[in-house]
Amino acid sequence: MTMALTMTRRVFLGAAATTLPLISRPLFAAVPGDNRLVVLLLRGGMDGLSLVQPLEDPSLEALRPDLALTLGDGLMDLDVAFGLHPAARPLLSLWQARELAFVHATASPYRSATPQHFEAQDMLEAGEARGSTLPTGWLNRALSSIPRAGARKADNLDGLQGLLLTGPNDGMVTSHPQIPPLGVDEIALLAQLYRSDPGFQEALRDVRPAQQTDDWVAGVMGMVAERLSADARLASLSLPGFDTHADQAVLLPTPISQLSTAIVALRSALAPAVWASTVVLAITEFGRTVAQNAGGGTDHGTASVALVAGGTIAGGRILGNWPGLSPDQLYAGRDLMPTSDVRALAAALLHRQFDISLTNLGTRVFPGLDLGAGSDFLSL
Hints:
Layout: H1 9-15, E1 27-30, E2 36-42, H2 48-51, E3 52-54, H3 58-63, E4 76-77, E5 82-84, H4 92-96, E6 100-107, H5 117-126, H6 138-143, E7 153-156, E8 171-173, H7 184-193, H8 198-204, H9 214-229, E9 232-239, H10 248-251, H11 253-269, H12 272-276, E10 278-284, E11 304-310, E12 317-319, E13 340-341, H13 342-354, H14 358-365
Parallel strand pairs: 2-9, 2-10, 6-12, 6-13, 7-8
Antiparallel strand pairs: 1-7, 1-9, 3-5, 4-5, 6-11, 10-11
Helix pairs in contact: 9-11, 13-14
């Protein structure tokens, strides 16, 4: 077979399944009111133990001799108990301004002995508790429950409809001039999908990866800011690159830096009054194993960390119940134990920003979720 040496994202999307996980796709929805919510999906299973690392935990140091950092390595002390990864330094000012919070040891209800990206991402976007994945996304279903909402519109700028904003509310597809070329992880995914096709594998070896740069991420967030400053009140997009099976110490700083860039760029691009009414939620499909593997990376795990940022949140805190990392405190003897449902965090933010009732959140948006008035997340 033949293949152009430079593969564009559009060609790739036309040739491959549209459910591939590592695609950045901004989505927007317009609803009444001034509050905004931006959902960042961190594709690849982000290692929450690296982004927000427990300090002085002997179990972590023993299980991650090459990955655990110290304050001497540039880890930034957040609250004595946890430190922030050096690549996230741009976020420190938001933490100090109490405009940033983390929820540790959180996960979707997805559990598997062999965690798979496709299944976990669909579960995360559908807001499903377990079993077969719902055909609609929780962000689209939330549109139907916002009080006094008039015309509702989901706007997908990548030409594809993502599950998160898929549902009964109207959708609109437009082109996005800033669609990036394939990244390193996307090429790796193609290699895995077509590993039995020798011709494809040969051609793929000549495809040059073009990793998204911080400048590209900042440019996309500038576009998001423009839409939020106009009629958009809900937005969703993805950041790839968190699948760090090998060489994690080398590879992970790049996506963490891009995550930090995305949030700081959005804050800078928005007027203060708009930032004050905006909340950013960053979540991932699953975490990674506590122990490093033989390749200097980590394998697919369970719980991770979620990030919340915004102009008026009660930040400067790490929420959630920390389970510990001793052998008897791990999930399945290998992963960070989940102590909260990430859907409860998303539900609390939807309640905060759009006044969606707890009843509707537990029945229509996240069926079966028991948010409860005592949820710590309602205080954000």
